[in-house]
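Residues pack. Consider this:
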Amino acid sequence: MGRKTGLNRGAERRAASPRRVALAGLGPSAVFCLTAALVAALWAPAIVSHTRDYAPAGARLRVRLALHAASRATFAPTPGVTESPNWAGYVDVAQRRHSFTRVSAQVVVPRALCRDPHNGDKYGNDASTWVGFDGWSYSADSVEQVGIDSYCNRHTPAYDAWYEDYPKPPVFLHVPVRAGDSLRLSVAYHDGVYTVRVQDITEGWTRARSFVCAAAGSCPRSSAEVLVEDPGAAPASDLTDYGLVTFNGAQASTEDAITSGLGLAYAGHWSAQVTQMADINNNLMAVPCCLGALGKSFSVRWDAWN
């Protein structure tokens, strides 16, 4: 695969190639976590919108594949911290011929704050919160994922549930979603069939879709992810100011029925990778924090305009 960029906003979806960074200083203090949680709790749910009123048309096509291929030579999928221009969260990387069969997490839909201190309100501000398989390795030409977009439809916060079986384009589910809704997201694999599921605990609905691998080769299920993403990636899109996203019950399973917290490595089965989002000038955009003792809960905070 050639080097990908975030400029064409094509419907491509693989992880931004990360760059190793130092471990020192990672992770906010407990004071930050408590303060951010309090701020998040004070946000009121916003009105849902399913009408895509973008200019120009098609501006929100996603960039999901690798964005900085040249930097990949410095990366090794071992526990530590990496930087990505479009991903922030945790990734499990399968070892010794293992593959993942399920990834899931519960999350509260973050509220999109539709403002830009540099340019005023603008079209296209977006943040995706999702779980899925593949996209981390260049050996995988597929991504199977399901999630929620928190974005700005002109001056109005809007929210959409979607799934994607790359290289096919994303499919929007056209269901009622509000900021503050509690969702369960999952992707599962069995006998050649993928099933994505969104359950809105707050609104009381569930949507599930099944499909087979759309990639020309195969879908290796070599990584499992729970992430926040800038779908356009700097400099093509500003990451929505979503404040703080907290994942609970985040876990992954392999083909031999091993299930564990996604944020921790499981010896002989997978390594766990934490990645933070940074722009081309190394300014942080989104940062994971506050990993729970069992590796099933963590937060990703919005950091700065990219």
Observations:
- The chain has a mean pLDDT of 75.
- Residues 30-42 form the longest helix (13 residues).
- The longest strand covers residues 143-153.
